[in-house]
Amino acid sequence: MKKVYLDYVATTPVDPLAVKEMAPYFSDKFGNTMSLYSLGREAKKDLEESRKKIASLISADPEEIFFTSSATESNNTILKGIKGSHMVISSIEHACIMESALWLEKQGARVTRIPVDKFGLVNPLDIEKAITKDTALVSIIHGSNEVGTIQDIGEIGRICREKNVLFHTDASQTFGKIKIDVENIDLLSASSHKIYGPKGAGIIFKRKGVDLTPLIHGGGQEEGLRSSTVNVPSIVGFAKACQIAEERMEKDLEKISRLFKKLVQEVLKIDNVYLTGHPEKRLKNIASFYFSFIEGESLVLSLDLEGIAVSTGSACSSRSLEPSHVLIAMGLEHEQAHGSLRVSLGRNTTEGEIDYFVDKLKESVNKLRKISPLCIQKK
Amino acid sequence: MYSEKVIEHFQNPHNYGRIENPDGIGEVGNMKCGDIMKLYIKLKGDAIEDIKFETFGCAAAIATSSVVTDLAKGKSIEDALKINAKDVVDSLGGLPNIKVHCSLLAIDALSEAVYDYYKNTGKEISEDLKKKHESIKKRDDE
Fold first, then answer.
1. What pLDDT is recorded for position A379?
2. Cβ-defined contact of A301 to B98 (cutoff 8 Å)
3. Is the pLDDT of residue B75 over 50?
4. Is A241 exposed, middle or buried (0-12, 13-18, 19+ CB in 10 A)?
5. Which of A172, A260, A315, B92 is disulfide-compatible with A323, CB 3.0–4.6 A?
6. Mean pLDDT across the stretch A62-76?
7. Range of the structural domain that residue A205 is part of
8. Which of A244, A260, A289 is the last residue of a domain?
9. Residue in A closest to B2 by C-alpha
10. Which residues, other chains included, contact B139 with Cβ-Cβ below 8 Å and sequence gap of 6+?
11. Residues of chain A found within 8 Å of residue B7, distances taken between Cβ atoms
């Protein structure tokens, strides 16, 4: 059966060049970066080379890059490692921010959740209003992993600077895909496996002078911010992926934008389907829709039976049986969120894959609507 | 996470659609919980001659609807009302824990269809069925 992967927002395949770059670090170059002898020193040298390549992608100083195991770990470290009694986040953060915030509230901290408009956009003025003299951190996701809306982090960062509050952004979906200016950013999280690097590597960008308490204590790696033997193979692969992303960014963006346009045009030809997220301020690799009269998990499984991998924010697909908090925050009704479908494009996506997807989508939607008691359109 | 049997029923559901002039219709679920089932029955004497469903919901909801109609078809009303969650889950080769409630929903739809039939024909409704009807309505209205 034909296989079409359209869930690049969940994870990406590792670029073959990154795999090649990593290979020696599993065998000949297996040293521990903390060891004194040459095998260790060489590992340390390659680690620092990787740091440089990754820093270059966001024009940061390599000393401002700290390695973690994932963006989830980076986000946890930042939220829990900033000392302060009040924090401002958006209502559409990734689960690792939402859950960390809930945990902090249990520890006695206060968290303000800023609402979004129907396009998933945070109004920077709402953040300005939410900041009090106790506010230690503002954390706003850069590009939404569910609907693709991109927040104005330049403006939000400027407000935070003016108010003398630290600003963090979770850039898991934007890092390596669009240009990021860290001028007004104090802290940033990003991940390797979203940009054709291996799993098991993430970063914290931390501006010099920002004080962060570690989450993991031990041997003092990463300037004491993140103890644990450094995962050199994954980091080397991550660095290669960053280098490739930097070289290809424009070309990839152009191709993906073209495919996005075609995809959205074709999908919206189906009756009773709507695009979610901001019409312009958005990542072009994420197209999120909702379909009336059918449920998202059924749609995902039905497409899976045709070899297509996509995802949904439907309640039925979640462990908690709650619909996506992002779609609900954007004002969607439960029934609309139930019918959600997220399609995400990547570097390897082809026009033929989009055609195949659209064909199979039409079939699946028709079939499920035939079974549905809600469909008013059937005979 | 789903058994092959679930996927099979989901991919090719049995007895879906509507029955024109049914003897009873059972409708359960609500939008907030995300599953809505409509079950139609046609009787011949005391036996369920034909049964069809329409379901809005996840793969488990569609598969359980399909299996319940299979289990009930041809049975007497009395026997059909005895179908329980275990029968449905077993026929599907198991269901993930979080989806077991879907099997209950399909059974509820069947008992509601029978209730509807009794009500339409002025037949006597047992206390059990009345109680069940009230608890389903209460749950779905929430």
1. 38
2. no
3. yes
4. buried
5. A315
6. 98
7. 16-244
8. A244
9. A301
10. none
11. 301, 305
**CA-CA distances (angstroms) from residue B73 to A190, A205, A370, B110?**
56, 63, 21, 11
Residue type for position B102: C
Contacts of A294 in chain B (CB under 8 A): 56
Domains identified in chain B and CATH numbers: 4-141 (3.90.1010.10)
What is residue B87's DSSP assignment? H
One-letter identity of residue B2: Y
Query: A339 to chain B, minimum CA–CA distance in Å?
Result: 9
β-pairing verdict for A202-206 and A187-191: antiparallel
Secondary structure string (H, E, C) spanning B6-48: HHHHHHCCCCECCCCCCCEEEEEEECCCCEEEEEEEEEECCEE
For residue range A7-38, what is the model confidence (pLDDT) as tens digits?
Answer: 999 999 999 999 999 999 999 999 999 999 99
Q: How many CB atoms lie within 10 A of CB A118?
A: 12
> Per residue in B7-53, pLDDT tens?
999 999 999 999 999 999 999 988 777 789 999 999 999 999 999 99
Is position A160 annotated as part of the catalytic site? Answer: no
- Number of structural domains found in chain A: 2
Cβ contacts of A317 on chain B, cutoff 8 Å:
58
pLDDT digits (tens, 9 = 90+) for A316-364: 777 777 889 999 999 999 889 999 999 999 999 999 999 999 999 999 9
HSE at residue A71, side-chain half, CA atoms within 13 A, is: 28
Scanning every residue of chain A, which has its alpha carbon at the shortest distance from the alpha carbon of B37? A373
Query: Which amino acid, A290?
Result: Y
Q: Are residues A163 and A179 in the same domain?
A: yes
The residue type of A144 is S
Within-domain flag for A378: no
Together in a domain, A172 and A216: yes
> Which comes out higher in pLDDT, residue A128 or B99?
A128
B33 carries an active-site annotation: yes
On the CB side of B125, how many CA atoms lie within 13 Å of its CA? 19
Q: Specify the higher pLDDT residue, B101 or A114.
A: A114
